[in-house]
């Protein structure tokens, strides 16, 4: 726990990590910004998938963690696309606020699109009567109409596409941590298992949009359960991967070493900044042939044991 | 130490709860609330129990202290349930308690867990009828042949018994977790808010509630913001506010439309670019919102600060008080250990006899069993600690100080020594007197101002 002796070392070094937010354009501090971002990304993933609570996880917490992950993905995407024009682009246009909010028009425009089942809307206009809360319990309206509604009622702005891509690119980033053949096998097994539940996505190998679509299909089937927290269950970043695939695949320890500043010298040589190009390259699991493992990361079994201990013990 | 003549000097009065450090999960206090007169103080815990304390009538001989609070009633409000559809438990933890104003001899309160709200009647029984014709005192039926005369049963005194009975159960109206309940100033209706929806109930009607706010998107993948708290205006029965995880507060008028998805006012402070970090959104999430007594102001609590808003000004708060700014450089660790998601509440002082209806002092909790008070007039603030070490009655609490960096002075505590497991999330201020109730993890502390 914070404040006890064991953590003191982390705190001291952590001041350098999070004392000030460093601009991503600074030379040497760009590495620490990237490290910080990567650490937070990993922590966020662990939070979403690490524990199996007996009770429903807090939706607020889940939403905030999801937002964090999406924001980081957006930044990575923009950094990746800005790479050729690195000098001119300077700071990407405020990934933390405007772009991010634009991508989510749904919240502020809920007044216009009808939220109730179609039959209810046809009998009386929404504005003129109170809605019994009991009708809201039947959440089936958010199943199949959900995908089509995106078209007619809310033409998604380009940023929305970026958000959908963020899911696939986040998935890809996870893929990058795992050697492609292993995860391809695992995913093939998962996809086969999910065949009866979701439409197989092999037709969407090269389209990032295909991934969220199959995920939405899966979420369709889970939606009839009222109040199902689709975010954690189906819209998360790891629909077709289980945590085991990550844990038991080859991963570089430096990613999980929460002391990045002391290991900076060692880690810097092993880690490459994650770019969108690399992410797209590793759409591997959905292709039939194994991609040459892009494996800058190797790990001993002893280190794997150590990580397992830390994760299980925490 | 004590500042000007108006500063309150707080003294330890009582502490309730187990002494040992090993905290039973069920004993974790999850809500604290005084009733409208301040005579009763209710707590709810993670085990679904409600404990009500009653203040002793002021003892004329002991004029230097106010009455003590003693246990008045304890009952099991909510039980754990199992949602078979989702294979998940529904926690029995009491999220909120709200008292109704007293109308007759009995007391009524609303208590809620994640899914179900219950109206409890707490009544006293200090007499019982004796002298039935057909029954013995123990309830057995008398042999009819032995009944030779008729008599009228009479009430005889008995030991005081306090009974709590559930009078209404408001269930099955919330898909998501209820975070707030608020009774309307009409005293007939109340609202309940979960992560995505707010429902309006009539206290007499349990089988129907009306949805007044719904922020659930058609596609749950687009969800980025949830409702975190909601409250009715203290005077205007058609006005309420709700706060969000993005640091916004929306004021809605129920007369405008049946579904209040369009707010009348939107309160939001623009982000300070010099303070931006990965955690900006999370720490902006509002954990509590409370109207001032007059209804002219409202107060919000986010992770690091308390903000006072004038209802007539939407673009920024009129005052901001830093609760524990020294945590700003620790946000990554606090994110990792989940402390950044702690939901601190805040409360106003009671209506002081001298300055009726003025909300002048703000109280809120922090870590290491510290709690903070901010005086809006003098702009002074103080940090106090709820600990058994200061448990001599009428001993004035010593102000505490956290050393953010640099050399630590004597009696200061460094940030790294703070115990983040000891958090004060719930505090309450007596509606009329300077008596405060402060809940640590499993203990309830009562402090009073020093009366001279």
Automatic annotation (TrEMBL), chain A:
Biased composition annotated in UniProt, kind: Low complexity: 182-191
Q: What are the start and end residues of every segment in region (Disordered)?
A: 1-29, 182-222
Instruction: Please list which residues make up the signal peptide.
Output: none
Q: Where is the composition biased (Basic and acidic residues)?
A: 8-18, 204-221
Q: Name one GO cellular component term.
A: nucleus
**Chain ranges of the SERTA domain:** 33-80
Query: What protein is this chain from?
Result: SRTD2 protein
Q: Which organism is it from?
A: Daphoenositta chrysoptera (varied sittella)
Q: Which gene encodes it?
A: Sertad2_0
UniProtKB/TrEMBL annotation, chain B:
Which keywords appear in this protein's UniProt record, sorted alphabetically?
Repeat, WD repeat
Parts forming coiled coils: none
Q: Name one GO molecular function term.
A: protein phosphatase regulator activity
In which domain of life is the source organism classified? Eukaryota
* Entry annotated with the keyword Repeat: yes
Q: What is any one of the record's Gene Ontology cellular component terms?
A: protein phosphatase type 2A complex
PROSITE patterns in UniProt: PR55_1, PR55_2
Q: Among its keywords, does the record have DNA-binding?
A: no
What family does the database annotate? Belongs to the phosphatase 2A regulatory subunit B family.
**UniProt name for this protein:** Serine/threonine-protein phosphatase 2A 55 kDa regulatory subunit B
Recorded name of the encoding gene: Ppp2r2a
């Amino acid at each position: 726990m914070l404040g006890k002796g064991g953590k003191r070392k982390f705190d001291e070094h952590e001041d350098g990590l999070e004392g000030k937010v460093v601009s991503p354009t600074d030379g040497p501090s760009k590495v620490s910004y990237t490290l910080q971002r990567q650490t937070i990304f990993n922590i966020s993933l662990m939070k979403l998938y690490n524990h199996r609570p007996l009770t429903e996880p807090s939706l607020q917490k889940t939403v905030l963690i999801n937002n964090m992950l999406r924001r980081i993905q957006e930044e990575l995407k923009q950094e990746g696309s800005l790479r050729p024009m690195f000098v001119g682009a300077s700071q990407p246009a405020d990934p933390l606020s405007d772009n991010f909010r634009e991508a989510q028009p749904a919240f502020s425009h809920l007044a216009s699109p009808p939220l109730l089942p179609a039959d209810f809307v046809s009998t009386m206009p929404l504005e003129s009567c109170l809605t019994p809360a009991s009708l809201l319990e039947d959440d089936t309206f958010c199943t199949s109409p959900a995908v089509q509604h995106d078209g007619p009622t809310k033409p998604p702005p380009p940023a929305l596409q970026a958000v959908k891509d963020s899911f696939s690119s986040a998935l890809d980033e996870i893929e990058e941590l795992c050697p492609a053949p292993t995860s391809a096998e695992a995913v093939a097994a998962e996809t086969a298992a999910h065949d009866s539940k979701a439409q197989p996505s092999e037709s969407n190998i090269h389209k990032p949009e295909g991934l969220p679509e199959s995920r939405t299909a899966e979420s369709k089937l889970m939606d009839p359960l009222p109040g199902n927290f689709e975010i954690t269950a189906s819209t998360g970043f790891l629909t077709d991967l289980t945590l085991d695939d990550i844990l038991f695949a080859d991963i570089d320890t430096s990613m999980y070493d929460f002391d990045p500043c002391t290991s900076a010298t060692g880690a810097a040589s092993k880690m490459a900044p994650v770019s969108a190009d690399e992410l797209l390259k590793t759409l591997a699991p959905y292709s039939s042939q194994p991609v040459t493992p892009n494996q800058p990361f190797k790990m001993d079994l002893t280190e794997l044991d150590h990580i397992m201990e830390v994760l299980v013990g925490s | 130490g004590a500042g000007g003549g108006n500063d309150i000097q707080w003294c330890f009065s009582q502490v309730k709860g187990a002494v040992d450090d090993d905290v039973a999960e069920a004993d974790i206090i999850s809500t604290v609330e005084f009733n409208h007169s301040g005579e009763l103080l209710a707590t709810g815990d993670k085990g679904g129990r409600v404990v009500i304390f009653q203040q002793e009538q002021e003892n004329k001989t002991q004029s230097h202290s106010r009455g003590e609070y003693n246990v008045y009633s304890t009952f099991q409000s909510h039980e754990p349930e199992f949602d078979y559809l989702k294979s998940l438990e529904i926690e029995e933890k009491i999220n909120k308690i709200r008292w109704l104003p007293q109308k007759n001899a009995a007391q009524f309160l609303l208590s809620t867990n994640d899914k179900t709200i219950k109206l409890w009647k707490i009544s006293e029984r200090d007499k019982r009828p004796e002298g039935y014709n057909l029954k013995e005192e123990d309830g057995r039926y008398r042999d009819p042949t032995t009944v030779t005369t008729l008599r009228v049963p009479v009430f005889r005194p008995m030991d005081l018994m306090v009974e709590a009975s559930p009078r209404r159960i408001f269930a099955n109206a919330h898909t998501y977790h209820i975070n707030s309940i608020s009774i309307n100033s009409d005293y007939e209706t109340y609202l309940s808010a979960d992560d995505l929806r707010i429902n309006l109930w009539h206290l007499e009607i349990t089988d129907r509630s009306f949805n007044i706010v719904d922020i659930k998107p058609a596609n749950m993948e687009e969800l980025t913001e949830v409702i975190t708290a909601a409250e009715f205006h203290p005077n205007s029965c058609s006005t309420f506010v709700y706060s969000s995880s993005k640091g916004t507060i929306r004021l809605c008028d129920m007369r405008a439309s049946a579904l209040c998805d369009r707010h009348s006012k939107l309160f939001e402070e623009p982000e300070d670019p010099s303070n931006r970090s990965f955690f900006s959104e999370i720490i902006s999430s509002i954990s509590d919102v409370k109207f001032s007594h007059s209804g002219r102001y409202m107060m919000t609590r986010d992770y690091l600060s308390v903000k006072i808003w004038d209802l007539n000004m939407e673009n920024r708060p009129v005052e901001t008080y830093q609760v524990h700014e020294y945590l700003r450089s620790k946000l990554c660790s606090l994110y990792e250990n989940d402390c950044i998601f702690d939901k601190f509440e805040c409360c106003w002082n009671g209506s002081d006899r001298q300055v009726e209806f003025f909300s002048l002092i703000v109280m809120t909790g922090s870590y290491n069993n510290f709690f903070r008070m901010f005086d809006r007039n003098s702009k002074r603030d103080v940090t106090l600690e709820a600990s058994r070490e200061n448990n001599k009655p009428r001993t004035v609490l010593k102000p505490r100080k956290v050393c953010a960096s640099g050399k630590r002075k004597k009696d200061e505590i460094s940030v790294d020594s703070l115990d983040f497991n000891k958090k004060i999330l719930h505090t309450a201020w007596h509606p009329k007197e300077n008596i405060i109730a402060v809940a640590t993890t499993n203990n309830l502390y009562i402090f009073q101002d020093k009366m001279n």
